[in-house]
């Protein structure tokens, strides 16, 4: 099961966070900081899977942004590794070359995309067009 | 007029640029950030501190900022401290104690906590400050390391190549919400979910205000504000009738849209109109919202050619 999804920049600032199991707001900052530190301190040749406390972190770096997912030991880390790539590819398709700025200023859309792909800590959709279908429909309606 | 101009100038956010390498002038880095051969006219010079105006311009916003060359911590005035939103420090990576010279800045940065923190050097050096050392330092102080001329260039075949050098510095400065930010119109790729959430929050706050406050929908319909303001001066109980008049106008338009030929254009405009009405409803207090929703639903029913008998008598008391 996926416990949480984070997007952080190289300074360690959280740009997106989504939790799939309850974590108190007050504890989130510390958890995010610790998880991010853990990923940022590793060099590029090191493995993208890290044992962390009683769970596992799977992360990938895209330019200046890191996508980090916390998963339980029963989760397949390779599928999560591919999920991250897929998620970023969907963002890239939607924003046509996604950047940190796009995520900052369209956080609502990013959350819609994420919620199409992950529900309750489980992967529910991987097809890019189907993931983007609701957003495309809404945008069509708004643009009239 | 000049007094107000000075005032706005005072609050422009500042990007503090400092160099801990006597061989490397702050102005050199500022030139590269601005992307011009020559430095612009300093907007101000205060002792050892020089200010350079710069406008950050990207797809989402423009923001006027000042690049501020500060040689040492003693030159940090209260004005700088108050307006500093980014901190860029250059250090000499060829000597092993290069990072030591940054020490005086740490308490200053920790005190002001600017959003953007960047550590710059020419390139990390195996015989001076190694990449690992610099990165560990950055991790400890929440900085980002940027090498102006890195030894290893990022893989260009990568779908998401890393930016390096000044380009990365500008990118990091872009990815910040400055206090002087001015959002651009028409680049909103989102569907306004956030803005309507913000609107409803604003509204609920306004509802706690004394009853003398303006109409709930003010701000959502800029064209009608003048009319609304006129009405607010009148008795409070008139508020309802004004809102209703607006709704009736909307419904009238809905009806007109469907009265014509059933072409695609009309149908699309119908949806746009519905969206507008929905947005408006989201800024209404709870009770009015229900009445509004009822009216819109009925109007839509009529618009799509529904039978009037079907909805007759469904009214929650009020005449439709």
TrEMBL record, chain A:
The membrane-spanning stretches of this chain are none
Q: Report how it sits in the membrane.
A: Peripheral membrane protein
Q: Which top-rank group of organisms is this from?
A: Eukaryota
Q: Where in the cell is it found?
A: Endomembrane system
Give UniProt keywords alphabetically.
Membrane, Protein transport, Transport
Q: In this protein, which residues make up the domain named AP complex mu/sigma subunit?
A: 1-141
Chief subcellular location equals: membrane
Biological processes per GO annotation: intracellular protein transport
- CDD domains cross-referenced by the UniProt entry: AP4_sigma
Which GO cellular component term is one of those annotated?
endomembrane system
Pfam families named in the record: Clat_adaptor_s (PF01217)
- Function, in words: Component of the adaptor protein complex 4 (AP-4). Adaptor protein complexes are vesicle coat components involved both in vesicle formation and cargo selection. They control the vesicular transport of proteins in different trafficking pathways. AP-4 forms a non clathrin-associated coat on vesicles departing the trans-Golgi network (TGN) and may be involved in the targeting of proteins from the trans-Golgi network (TGN) to the endosomal-lysosomal system.
Q: How does it assemble?
A: Adaptor protein complex 4 (AP-4) is a heterotetramer composed of two large adaptins (epsilon-type subunit AP4E1 and beta-type subunit AP4B1), a medium adaptin (mu-type subunit AP4M1) and a small adaptin (sigma-type AP4S1).
- PANTHER family, A to Z: ADAPTOR COMPLEXES SMALL SUBUNIT FAMILY (PTHR11753)
**Which family does the similarity line name?**
Belongs to the adaptor complexes small subunit family.
Q: Tell me the protein's name.
A: AP complex subunit sigma
**Organism from which the protein derives:** Kryptolebias marmoratus
TrEMBL record, chain B:
Which InterPro entries does this chain map to? Answer: Alpha/Gamma-adaptin-bd_p34
Give the stretches traversing the membrane.
none
Which parts of this chain are annotated as the region Disordered?
Answer: 202-242
Q: Which residues lie in Basic and acidic residues bias regions? A: 226-240
Q: Which PANTHER family match?
A: ALPHA- AND GAMMA-ADAPTIN-BINDING PROTEIN P34
Q: What is this protein called?
A: Alpha and gamma adaptin binding protein
Tell me the organism's taxonomic lineage: Eukaryota, Metazoa, Chordata, Craniata, Vertebrata
């Amino acid at each position: 099961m996926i416990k949480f999804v984070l997007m952080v920049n190289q300074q360690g600032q959280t740009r997106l966070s989504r939790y799939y199991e309850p974590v108190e707001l007050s504890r989130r900052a510390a958890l995010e900081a610790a998880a991010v530190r853990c990923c940022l301190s590793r060099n590029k040749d090191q493995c993208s899977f890290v044992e962390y406390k009683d769970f596992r972190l799977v992360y990938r770096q895209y330019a200046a942004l890191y996508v980090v997912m916390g998963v339980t030991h029963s989760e397949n880390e390779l599928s999560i590794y591919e999920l991250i790539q897929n998620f970023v590819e969907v963002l890239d398709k939607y924003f046509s070359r996604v950047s940190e700025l796009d995520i900052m200023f369209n956080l609502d859309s990013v959350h819609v995309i994420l919620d199409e792909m992950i529900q309750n800590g489980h992967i529910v959709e991987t097809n890019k067009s189907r993931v983007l279908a609701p957003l495309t429909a809404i945008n069509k309606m708004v643009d009239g | 007029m000049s007094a107000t101009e000075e005032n706005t100038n005072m609050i422009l956010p500042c990007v503090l640029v400092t160099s801990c390498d006597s061989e490397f002038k702050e102005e050199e880095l500022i030139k590269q950030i601005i992307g011009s051969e020559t430095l612009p006219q300093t907007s101000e010079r205060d002792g050892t501190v020089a200010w350079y105006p710069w406008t950050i311009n990207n797809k989402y916003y423009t923001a006027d900022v000042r690049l501020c060359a500060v040689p040492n911590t003693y030159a940090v005035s209260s004005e700088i401290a108050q307006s500093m939103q980014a901190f860029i420090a250059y250090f000499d990576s060829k000597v092993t104690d290069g990072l030591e010279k940054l020490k005086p800045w740490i308490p200053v940065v920790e005190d002001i906590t600017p959003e953007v923190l960047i550590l710059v050097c020419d390139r990390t050096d195996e015989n001076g400050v190694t990449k690992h050392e610099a990165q560990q330092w950055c991790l400890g102080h929440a900085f980002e390391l940027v090498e102006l001329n890195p030894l290893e260039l990022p893989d260009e075949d990568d779908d998401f190549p890393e930016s390096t050098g000044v380009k990365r510095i500008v990118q990091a400065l872009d990815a910040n919400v400055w206090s002087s930010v001015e959002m651009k119109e028409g680049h909103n790729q989102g569907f306004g979910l956030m803005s309507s959430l913000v609107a409803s929050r604003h509204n609920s706050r306004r509802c706690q205000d004394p009853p003398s406050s303006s109409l709930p929908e003010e701000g959502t319909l800029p064209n009608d504000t003048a009319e609304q303001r006129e009405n607010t001066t009148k008795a409070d109980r008139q508020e309802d009738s004004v809102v209703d008049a607006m709704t009736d106008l909307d419904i009238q338009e809905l009806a007109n849209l469907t009265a014509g030929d059933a072409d695609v254009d009309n149908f699309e405009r119908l949806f746009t109109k519905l969206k507008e009405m929905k947005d408006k409803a989201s800024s209404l207090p709870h009770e009015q919202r229900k009445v509004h929703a009822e009216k819109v639903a009925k109007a839509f029913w009529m618009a799509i050619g529904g039978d009037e008998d079907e909805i007759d008598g469904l009214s929650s008391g009020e005449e439709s």
